[in-house]
Amino acid sequence: MGRYIVRRLLAVIPVLAGVILVVFILSTVVPGDPARILSGQRGDPETIERIRREMGLDRPWYIQMAKFFRDAITFDLGRSYRNNMKVTQALADRIPASAKLAGAALLVAVPFGMVLGITSAVKQYSIWDYASMILALLGVSVPVFFFGLLMIVVFCVRLGWLPGTGYGGLRYLILPAITLGLRPAALIARITRSSMLEVVRQDYIRTARSKGVPEGSVVWRHALRNAMIPVITVIGVDVPSLLSGAMLTETIFCWPGIGRLAVEAVINRDFPIQRGVVLFMALVFLGATLIVDLSYGFFDPRVRYE
User: Fold this and answer.
1) What is residue 71's predicted lDDT score, i.e. its pLDDT?
2) By C-alpha distance, which of 101, 214, 110 is closest to 167?
3) pLDDT at residue 302, rounded to an integer
4) Domain residue spans in the chain?
């Protein structure tokens, strides 16, 4: 297991370098001159040229790329064009809100999705199976922005039970967490059902049942563990998107997280914040992928020896 972990860690390094390179290329080809943005609408050519020299934009591209790699590795991502705040500080201020929302969405998605999927697989072709898959299909099909607005209209405007927007305690968290967790729950339910149906047809499951093992033990101890690898993959892919890419949900509910910060940076053409958000999202995706790979080795020992 130790050598397997080392191999996975070493595989992350070239991927991270490639991500940094792509971010640098995109930041250089995107329309807009940072020096002109900083100088304002009335900036004269002399001021713009001075700002370009101070920012190092007049240097050759390979020197700029080397500096960008150094800054990315040391987490020195510059300052926001809008408020002169350090990019790392802006990200640090928004991460707790995004983590809070992502954790709540996972608490909605994982138990609900797995229960739906397991119930659907164990009771195949029953009313429970059809009802579970209809709910899963709706969860995948309904756009996030539509479902979020629908939740606000029903539970805030019509019933007045919960606040529709804002950041605060549990009452402010319920609606965005359900909205953000709907699609992952539907995907987890579909993948869990498919994986469980494949596992419960295996010979060792029939052997366990023929020996009189209780059905609950067959499902939860024998079948579920061997059906977890596809489910872990879906959860591992969704966690980074919940943490760093919930742009629509955070915008609809005015939630001050990373997703809303990205939207504000795009609107204000704040390139340092944009680069910082992209690098943060890449790190989260790489970390989640690494955890998923290590989980494969834990749940299925055969993976460690391939």
Assistant:
1) 77
2) 101
3) 57
4) 2-73, 96-267
Give the CATH fold of the 96-267 domain. Answer: MetI-like fold (1.10.3720)
Whole-model pTM: value is: 0.74
Model pLDDT for residues 36-66, shown as the tens digit of each residue: 666 666 666 777 777 777 666 677 777 878 8
* Range from 39-53, 71-85, 163-177 carrying the lowest mean pLDDT: 39-53
